[in-house]
Amino acid sequence: MAARAQADQAVAAPQGVAEAVAYAEAVVGVGAIPVGRLAGLACARFLRDRIAAEAGRGPWAFRPDLVEAALLFAGQMPNIKGPEAGQPLRCRSPDLRLEDFEGQECHLGLDLASRTDLAALALVFPQTCRETGKTTYAAFARCYLNEEAVLEARNAAYPGWAAAEHLVLTPGNETDFQAIEDDILEFSRRFRIVSVGYDPWQSTQLAQRLRAQDVEMVEFRSTTANFSPAIIELDAAMRSGRLQHASNPVLEWCIGNVLGKPDRRGNLRPTKARPEQQIDAAVALIMSVGRSMTEPKQFTSIFERAELWQV
Do residues 181 and 242 share a domain? Predict the structure, then answer.
């Protein structure tokens, strides 16, 4: 029995399965993602198999090969319809490395919505392609979580993401914002930070300290007027492949949880369907894209480097 429990803990929440489950729930549970009948049936079967496995009626905990199957599922399902059906999302670029952008201009977005759960910052390095005149983005996210949240597995994927270093862990049961402040100061030494967008709620004191260190802190209040243009641009950039990120599963999960809620004028702000879902990394990315839209564009896109494109 002890051996089985250890095996269950080792592979019960692998990264790929978490991504696939998040997508399937968005299709089946809340209808947030419109897909064809075949995709809907596949998602429903996927969730039924998972529930059976967790109840001890299936092979989930004893089939590590299911991780690869789940990764494939999560990567292919978003493009189930249209000419790109069956192709992975084009915004993933495993060859993208933060160290390749040393000394370059970037914008940061900072979401400190919760001390008891996820907090995040995102960096984007915008460039303007000479041929098209459109902006491309190299995006990176760093997500923070307290150790207690991981031990409690408030999200089944947290332990796996922490083990793979996709989460920066801080001690105790509160996410330590000092770790975030230290990282921003480190980034300011490595890159040319044009601006850091932040919501004054929960961030005012941190912003004051960073401003005293000559970091350009700019308020980005949580309003539809601020969010809507950035959401529209981010969505267009992701669909066209103008935005690339380094296959960050936490960022992808947060993006998959975002729902664009319109106001009476049709302006959008990011929200989520259920309280247990997290969108912090996606909100930070939206803020960083929004900040980059206010600055003059630079030419010679990093994406003109052929090795970054998936064939």
Answer: yes
Are residues 279 and 118 in contact, defined by beta-carbon separation less than 8 angstroms?
no
Structural domain for 69, as ranges: 2-79
End-to-end CA, the chain: 46
Q: How far is CA 98 from CA 162, 186, 190, 191, 225, in A?
A: 19, 13, 10, 10, 30
Cβ pair 254, 120 in contact under 8 A:
yes
Q: Give alpha helix (H) positions in the chain.
A: 2-11, 15-28, 37-54, 65-76, 147-151, 158-163, 177-190, 204-212, 224-240, 249-257, 280-292
Which amino acid, one-letter code, is at 192? R
What are 39's two structure tokens? 């995709």
40-88 pLDDT, tens per residue? 677 777 777 777 777 777 655 555 555 556 655 555 554 444 444 434 4
Alpha-carbon dihedral of residues 293, 294, 300, 306, nearest 10 degrees? -20
Q: Are residues 22 and 114 in the same domain?
A: no
pTM of the full predicted structure?
0.69
Is residue 25 assigned to a domain? yes
Helix (H) or strand (E) holding 244: strand 243-245
Tokens (6 digits) for 159: 């332990």
249-257 vs 280-292: helix crossing angle, rounded to 10: 90
Do 113 and 57 fall into the same domain? no
Tokens (6 digits) for 71: 């990764």
CATH number at residue 141: 3.30.420.240
- Quote the DSSP letter at residue 258: E
Separation of CA 309 from chain center: 20
For residue 134, the tally of other CB atoms under 10 A from its CB is 14
As given in the structure block, the two tokens for residue 61 are: 């905990």
